[in-house]
Amino acid sequence: DTAGEWWRHAVIYQVYPRSFADASGDGIGDLPGVTSRLDHLARLGVDAIWLSPFYRSPQADAGYDVADYRAIDPLFGTLADFNELLERAHQRGMRIIVDLVPNHTSDEHEWFQAALAAGPGSPERERYMFREGKGEHGELPPNNWESIFGGPAWTRTTDPSGEPGQWYLHMFDTRQPDLNWEHPEVRAEFEDVLRFWLDRGVDGFRIDVAHGMVKAPGLPDWHGSVSMIDGSHDEAGSTGAGNSGPMFDQDGVHDIYRAWNKVLAEYDGDRALVAEAWVEPLSRLARYVRPDEMHQAFNFSFLSTTWDAAALRTVVTASLAANDNVGAPTTWVMSNHDTVRHASRLGLLEPNSRPNGIGHGDEQPDEELGLRRARAASLMMLGLPGSAYIYQGEELGLPEHTALDDDLRQDPAWWRTGHTERGRDGCRVPLPWKAGEPGFGFSPTGATWLPQPDSWSAYALDAQKGVPGSTYEMYREALRVRREFHLGSGSLAWVDGVGDEQAAVVFANRDVLVVTNLGDEPVVLPEGATVLLASGDLVTEDGRVSVPTDVAVWARLS
Ligand code: TEU
How far is 225 from 146, CA to CA, in rounded Å? Predict the structure, then answer.
């Protein structure tokens, strides 16, 4: 649609380029692969596509380590391929959001290489966070910070003279040195990078680690944890998915977004900034979407919510309230490339609210239960007002690959944590397009950079397309009805008296009643409600329709 502020109610589909579709045949997805599958996304009915990084990169963190912000990595294609993808998406009425990674560069970025070569005290080092070590010979890191991926957040360099030298900060992998955002050249460079892509016609940016760029003065020691998710929903508005400490959510970071907001405003066509900020409570997250800052922030609350009616209601209420206060749209996220796919999270019998880790012990998700609940959860999410994110493959109901061999895993967040938690490769497995082909049609050669489980033939797109009741057709129908009834720009009203409060989540959005049954007993729909779509089979008795356990329904209110 061409309406103003499209992002307020948009359904945005995340493409993880290395695993979406491969055109070149090397088993790694690429931009021409995305272009070749745009019809899938158009038919699904999404408003926009967010592309995870495709820039030149040594791929130490799957492209979140950028060596050149203005170039396409040869793995993924060329700038001409990007232009074609953008043009064809626009022709089909879909917008394109690209991923910007400003907290850190790759160690292969020319700035970092220059900083290493120039040595201590040089202006080149000022663009990063180089410090002298502690201890008699500088042999101890400058402070006690830990990297998100595990281990110390500092790595010692060797001076151009060959002697052990300064340390540099990296909140993620050792190959992802943090930039110094107090430096005017860093700020100027990224405004220029924004313009580079805006000039090419992109519709927006997803800002990686948007809460991380500014660090507290003096880089004080921190005795808390930097970890992502603790699953705590104890206080109102706590998402259970926050980073804290002197390296996150510092007030100064907002100046950067105020400047970027102005850059985007120079361009027509409603360009948008989306914050990836693991910040809590939600009132802190809402500060990133104040009118002169970003336009959206990912709301990660669902990622750490167990399958519980009261918990889901609390999250929805708190999410809407936090955004109401700043006039920004609420967003909803069930899965992404960093977390265990929700079809598997929700299939754990032992409730697990830690989306980064499956397999405390040897617990394996129940695939059938997980899929049933994931379909219900997604239908509930797509009925909510605001903007919804879909991670590639969730429209197929894909589970996490929980049986990947350790030696095939490539995520640095796995080996750094000393094998206490699985890395993120299990949600990054190449998509299945065609049931009967090698690699399920991901690549013309059958190659896939990670193996797919055999059971994925049942999830392949061609096994679901046109099949009534398939997960793919459910998503497609949900997006169609969502558009028809303008649910994205609607508002939520909780409905009492349908099912038991402890067991069902029931709300109305415009003329649509959304009922999600998490309890053991069927929930009987109110008289006169006409079913529009359902995530599972319904039961009709004496002319009354009821919703079984772990099923969601959209019904028209008469
Ligand atoms: O993620 C930010 C982040 O904090 C992640 O580390 C994430 O929560 C992590 O998976 C927890 O284990 C972004 C990107 O989405 C992620 O893929 C990158 O690895 C990270 O930034 C560094 O760029």
Answer: 8
